[in-house]
Structures
1.
Amino acid sequence: MNQKRGKRNGRISETNTRPAPARLDAGKGDRRTNDALPLDGRIIQPDRKHWLDYITALLGFIAAITGFGAAGFSGWQAWIAYQGTIVANRAFVLSNSFQYITYQEPTESNRIWIASPLIENSGNTQTRRMTTFTQGYVGLPGGFPWDDSTKQQPRANRLIGPKGSSVAQTVGATPESFNQMQSGPKLGAAGIIRYQDIFGGWHLTEYCYFARPMTHFDFKAFPSNQPVRAEGQLCDQHNCADEECGPDWLKRAME
């Protein structure tokens, strides 16, 4: 019994007395310490740990740069969308046709027709601070000279709503006179339009054109109170908008 117990005790003592892993003492000249030993017994060299730190920092830096780039790209997209909204909805004013109308019946002996350059806003919003200056001509055979003194000329203040129109300087004449203009001297108009859109942008429009002949139109017999539109034949110059009107267009628009 004692021997068996002794053997058992001996086995137990062998198991219990197995030498434990030696601790490395950094104070005795060994550079490694128990803190450098992972659970599986492998040793991670300090240099490898430094490289892992460098890679982690680099990846973090790349992620930060990517985030800044994404934010900048989003801001650029928002700016492009805003500019697109302005272009799609701002007021755009032009003039390229005449409007004829009479308020007297064909049977009246003193019947008078009125011809006016038609100023239109093709945009989706109204105009602001809009002024116009118009010169009317009759009987000029070709492109008439541009009057550079328009800065000193009186201007008309106007407001045109979205998809709206307004008439400028009017010319009144008898049906016989307008019938003669269809085959003889032409009726013409030229002018400058200055205005601001609701987004704060300033704009400038120049126009110059003659009324196209309406050879099959009878000014004597046509009913009253029905406006008639005559498309304009553009002059060689002075049909432009904003940058097309020269490098000083913005200064002229704000004058």
Note: Residues 117 and 193 are 12 Å apart (CA to CA).
2.
Amino acid sequence: MSNVLIAFLVSISATAWIYNKFMRSTGGNTKNAVISAAVAGIAIFIFMLLVLMLIVSWL
């Protein structure tokens, strides 16, 4: 699989988990949970993509 696809799958699953945690902790505040999960998902995607590109360049 390509690095982008792997990073995308990791970020989608992490975003879903973060959204679920924030929905529980905020008592159903959807707007804050969605915004927080989206920001974290984008950051995780970029981080995973950089890590995977670094690993591939070492091999």
Note: The CA atoms of residues 9 and 47 lie 13 Å apart.
